Amino acid sequence: MSCLLKASGGLHARLRIGAVLLAAGEGRRMGGVAKALIRLQGVPLIRRQLIALSGAGVDELVVVTGHAREAVEAQVQPFPVTLAHNDAYRDGQQGSVRAGLAALSGPFDAVLVVLADQPLLGEADLTEMISAFKKRPAGHVVVPQVSADGQARRGNPVVLDETACGLILQGDANFGCRQFIERHPELVHLHQTTNTRFITDLDTLDDIERLAQRTGWKLELPKLEAAA
């Protein structure tokens, strides 16, 4: 897989964008729920992400599965995407990132790495990150840093260039690791924003309850037999 970065100048040309959608997690803090299958207003989160990525103009998309593989793949089937499976999904997210990057055919100017459990993420938010990538003064990866409630928190998704893709595929970098980012600030451009959708995810049952109370929307867990 190759990410090919164009020289910039004047107005930004349209980038060729690849994307990796991570849907492999086993939802340990939810008792083994496949978070990609949680329904928001009747629509599984993974389908919401697929629609958002399509609207943002992504040219090629890889969905990485792991836990509840068959159930997740059934939701993805109607969409023109590539499937990659990470057998070692229990070992952590970075293996799924590598599996997704390796499955992209390329070449690309940039690659979005998106989590399936961010329920409010939409087309406009992905476009914001692509725009931040185009405008960055330096760095090989763009990470949203959200200012809210007097705090600054790093969020998702991230956008990678060719160098970042190569480092991850070689196993030399984990851009999701706070320690790595702090040790190598020259590699990372922090996109300063107040967009809290970048830091809204569903890790626990309490997260689901809080989001339902805040939005008034209906969230439903998948049946365990369907998600196994």
Question: What does the model show?
Answer:
It is a single chain. The protein has 228 residues and is an alpha/beta fold. It is built from eight helices and eleven strands. The chain has helices at residues 45-55, 69-76, 93-103, 123-135, 162-169, 178-183, 205-215, 224-227, and strands at residues 17-23, 39-40, 43-44, 60-65, 82-85, 110-115, 141-148, 151-154, 158-160, 188-193, 219-220. Strands 1, 4, 5, 6, 7, 8, 9 and 10 form an eight-stranded mixed β-sheet that branches. α2 (69-76) links the parallel β4 and β5. The chain is globular. The two termini are 31 Å apart.
| Secondary structural class | alpha/beta
Q: Count all strands and give the number.
A: 11
The dominant shape is globular
Number of helical regions: 8
Please state the average pLDDT score: 90
Which series of helices and strands comes N to C?
EEEHEHEHEHEEEHHEHEH
List low-pLDDT spans: 2-10
Key descriptive features of the protein:
three-stranded antiparallel beta sheet; 228 residues; eight-stranded mixed beta sheet; alpha/beta; disordered N terminus; 32% helix
Task: Explain the layout of strands and helices.
Layout lengths: L16 E7 L15 E2 L2 E2 H11 L4 E6 L3 H8 L5 E4 L7 H11 L6 E6 L7 H13 L5 E8 L2 E4 L3 E3 L1 H8 L8 H6 L4 E6 L11 H11 L3 E2 L3 H4 L1
Parallel strand pairs: 1-4, 1-6, 4-5, 7-10
Antiparallel strand pairs: 2-3, 2-11, 6-9, 7-8, 7-9
